[in-house]
Sequence to fold (269 residues):
Amino acid sequence: MESLIALLYYLIMSSDLVFLHGEHFSRCEARVDKHFVGYCSLQFMSAGGVELKYDQETFELAGRWFWPAFPGPRIRFHTAPGQKYWEHRYVAFQGPLVNRWMADGLFPKHPQPAPRGVKWAQTFDRLLFETHRGGRWGTLRGINQLEHILLILAEHRHEAAPNEPWLATLLKKLHDAGQFTADYETLAQEAGMSLSTLRRQFRRLTGVSLHAYSMQCRIARARTLLGESDFTIKQIALRLGYSDVYFFSKQFKQAVGIPPAMYRRSRQF
Fold:
């Protein structure tokens, strides 16, 4: 039974995140200029310097830095002027779990200095080891290690973030079980700003759109109800504001990787 549970957990988690590739270059001189389509990556520089651009936004990085790559902007980075190379580690991945990390504010949207007090080279090398090992345990340990890194980065961003009381109130409402069909216009009025300003400020502070975050809250609530309640899938869809159970099932599968019924069966062991 324990082995069956472990296998089911692996199947769920591995469908949530797939590691594509990752490497460590001690003397990197690469030039990257591309739109990332369908996948993300986390880059780590432990020495040297990099010039980084997201569309027209430019950053000069030197020393120990993390930066993300994700679908959307044209992303360019190369050795910074005056530098010959940089020491580079990265890992690339895709899957619904990335969307949840973004919705929860774990995945960075801008470059971030590596927080002090962590042996980052060793930490990232452990991540690369597990992703290269692959298989059930390598995948699960890799997911765990990557999330561990993202949690540390997110905590430091949170500590440095400006105090925004309206954001805390809004996040609470979006997480509230009865607010998944929230009226964005009303939320904007309650926050004292126009809807366009609310959308812009929300993305700036969380790294994800207001609608995407709301959708992730609905899916998270759906996972809880599927695992902890006796409601039918149709009843769960209605409670979350869906009038069409088939549309709910489609969105759930897109976000989680498996249909609601299969997810519920996996939680019954």
Remarks:
- Residues 155 and 220 are 21 Å apart (CA to CA).
- The chain has eleven helices and eight strands.
- The beta strands are 18-28, 32-35, 40-54, 57-62, 65-69, 74-79, 86-94, 112-113.
- The radius of gyration is 20 Å.
